[in-house]
Specification:
With 261 residues, the protein is an alpha+beta fold. It has five helices and ten strands. Helix 3 packs across helix 4. The protein is elongated. The mean pLDDT is 95.
Length: 261
C-alpha cells in the first residue's frame, strides 16, 4: 500500500511542485519532512505540476519507500502505512513542515493508485480582488482588479459558460508547449462574487499548461469589453493563442480539489 496525503499550501515562496535545483519546491519540502518522520527516503508523486506561486487548498500526493536510496530497508517487509497510525501521520509530518504547507489527512491506497492518472476531474479557482485600491493583506493571494459592475459580471459568466464542453483548448495553452493532445472536457465553469472577491471556478478532466490562467484572463477581457462573450466559441474553434485573453499571474490560482471516484 502507498501513503496518500492530502495537503494544502501557499505556493508564494516556492518554485512550484516539481523538485528542481534553482529554488525551493513543494515536492522537495515534503520529501524532507517524510525523511525526518520515517527515517528513510521516499518516492513522492503529486497530482499536478503546479507552477511557481500557485496555491492549493487540497493537493494529493502519494509516498512510498524508495529502496534505491534507502538500501538499509532491504528486507524490511513493513509498508509505509504500517509504521505510524494513519490518524497520527498529519501531526507527525506537520512538525517538520513550514507554516505555509500543511498535511490535512492521510490514507492508505493500493499500489496501483496514481495521484495524477487516477484522477477523474480537477477543480481550479482563480481569485480576483475587486476594489478601487489594492490591499497589502491579499498581496500574492489574489489578483487586484478595478471594480466591475453586475453587467460585467454577467459577461464574465457568459464567457465562462461558453467554455463548457469537450473542446480542443489549444487557444488556451501557453505558446511553445509540447503537448500534442489538446482536447479536454470542461464540465463546470462559472464566475461568482464573494464580498470583495470575484472567483472564476472551472472543473475539467485535465488542464493544459497555463490553461486556467488564460481562461481567467479571457473572462476578465470579457468583463472589460475587450472580448465579446459570444466570441469565445470562435476563439476555441480557431485554436490560436493570440485570440484568447492574457495569461494572468500565478498567485491568483488555487487548486481547489481533485476527484478520484
Amino acid at each position: 500500500m502507498k501513503l496518500l496525503l492530502t495537503i494544502a499550501f501557499d505556493g508564494g515562496a516556492y518554485c512550484g511542485w516539481q523538485s528542481q535545483t534553482n529554488g525551493p519546491t513543494i515536492q522537495r519540502t515534503i520529501n524532507k519532512a517524510l525523511f525526518e518522520t520515517y527515517g528513510f527516503e521516499c518516492l513522492v508523486t503529486g497530482c499536478s505540476r503546479t507552477d511557481s506561486g500557485v496555491h492549493a487548498r487540497r493537493y494529493f500526493l502519494t509516498a512510498e519507500p524508495d529502496c534505491t536510496r534507502s538500501p538499509d530497508r532491504t528486507g524490511d517487509t513493513r509498508g509505509i502505512v504500517d509504521i505510524i497510525p494513519l490518524e497520527r501521520v498529519p501531526r507527525a509530518l506537520n512538525v517538520h513542515l513550514p507554516d505555509d504547507i500543511a498535511v490535512i489527512s492521510a490514507n492508505a491506497v493500493p499500489d496501483s493508485f496514481h495521484p495524477r492518472y487516477s484522477a477523474k476531474r480537477k477543480t481550479y479557482e482563480y481569485v480576483f480582488y475587486d476594489s478601487a485600491e489594492r490591499n497589502p493583506f491579499y498581496r500574492g493571494r489574489a489578483y487586484h482588479i478595478q471594480p466591475i459592475d453586475n453587467d460585467a459580471l454577467r459577461r464574465m459568466n457568459e464567457a465562462a459558460t461558453a467554455m463548457i464542453g469537450r473542446h480542443d483548448f489549444r487557444a488556451f495553452m501557453a505558446s511553445g508547449s509540447s503537448i500534442v493532445d489538446t482536447v479536454r472536457e470542461v464540465t463546470e465553469c462559472s464566475v461568482r462574487r464573494e464580498g470583495d472577491f470575484i472567483i472564476f471556478c472551472v472543473t475539467a478532466d485535465g488542464f493544459l499548461y497555463n490553461m486556467v490562467r488564460i481562461m481567467a484572463g479571457t473572462v476578465l477581457a470579457a468583463a472589460r469589453g475587450k472580448i465579446d462573450a459570444s466570441d469565445v466559441k470562435k476563439i476555441i474553434e480557431l485554436r490560436e493563442r493570440k485570440k484568447a485573453g492574457d495569461t494572468l499571474p500565478p498567485y491568483g490560482l488555487y487548486l481547489k480539489d481533485v476527484v478520484y471516484l
